[in-house]
Amino acid sequence: MIKHINALVTTTNEAQPLELIQIPLPELGEHDLLVKVMASGVNPVDAKQRSMAVAAGATRVLGFDGVGEVVGLGEKVADFNLGDRVFYAGQLSRTGSNAEYQLVDARIAARAPETVSVEAAAAMPLTFLTAYELLHDHFNIKMEARAARGKRLLIINGAGGVGSVMIQLAKWLGMEVIASASRPETVAWVEQMGADHVINHRDDYVPLVKSMGLAPVDYLAILHTPEPHIEAAAELIAPFGHIGAIVEPAAPLEVRKMKNKAASLDWEFMFAKTNADFEVASQGKALALLQQLIDSAQITTTLTERVHGLDAETIREAQDRVASGKVMGKLVAIFD
């Protein structure tokens, strides 16, 4: 029986914020899977949580996206078997995927896609759930092929992890997609993901969108710092339209221009459901849909970069690179 595991934990040293040590394996809960971790996706939240933990002197095992093999089952787990390969996006309150083994609530996991590598699968859960919940839970779009045919979506920061999968999901839903990108390589990437139109979010894009005959838009997703884009969003959104955001603003937002359009501003935070124990199983069901979409080639992985090893310096550098905003798609750590 496994009692201790190797894991990367946060330290109180800003210069060396991660350390590989042995820690006790938490007790298996009745709804838990014990997963031998094979790969872990790196997200902006990793560096943010690392900085908070170091400042607070807290010991945390980070890593949220994960893919691995089920090697243990809680007594109330009915939908998985030993040996299943699963993927999931984890929880803020539990030991993360930067470890040899991880306990995962079975309700937020699904069987991993069979047609792609473990690292390709590990790139997807957190960003897909963010895109899925924004479109389905907030924008009230039914998750069926072509269910949003005739609707128009503008995505600010289309080349990031969430934007890359949101473009694909929106196209599966039948939407016309405008995505923003600011460099030649990111323009090419969002076009590869399926965007119908590309704009530069560093320009004054409101007159451009209007001149292209693409305003108003039914839905608008701000997948970056919202302050520079909130007034443009209010200008471009359709009456009774939905504006979604995923990044906490540093200052109050000017939202008064939305009022006369009766437009809504929706906040998406992928961990909100597990933090509040609210409709937790919906995340496992969403990932089951993602597995089907990947295995039927309706959605492709957003994996673009790989690193190897459960190593403190390797993972720190990967977290910092993702936090810099310079990674297109997703970076994944493979634990060989």
Automatic annotation (TrEMBL):
A molecular function annotated in GO for this UniProt entry is: oxidoreductase activity
UniProt keywords (A-Z) are: Metal-binding, Oxidoreductase, Zinc
Enoyl reductase (ER) domain spans which residues? 13-333
Q: Which domain of life is it from?
A: Bacteria
InterPro entries xref list: ADH-like_C, ADH-like_N, ADH_Zn_typ-1, ER, GroES-like_sf, Lipid_raft_assoc_Zn_ADH, NAD(P)-bd_dom_sf, Quin_OxRdtase/zeta-crystal_CS
Instruction: Note the Gene3D superfamilies from the entry.
Output: Medium-chain alcohol dehydrogenases, catalytic domain (3.90.180.10), NAD(P)-binding Rossmann-like Domain (3.40.50.720)
Sequence similarity: Belongs to the zinc-containing alcohol dehydrogenase family. Quinone oxidoreductase subfamily.
Cross-referenced NCBIfam families: adh_fam_1 (TIGR02817)
Q: What is this protein called?
A: Zinc-type alcohol dehydrogenase-like protein
At the highest ranks, the source species' classification is:
Bacteria, Bacillati, Bacillota, Bacilli, Lactobacillales
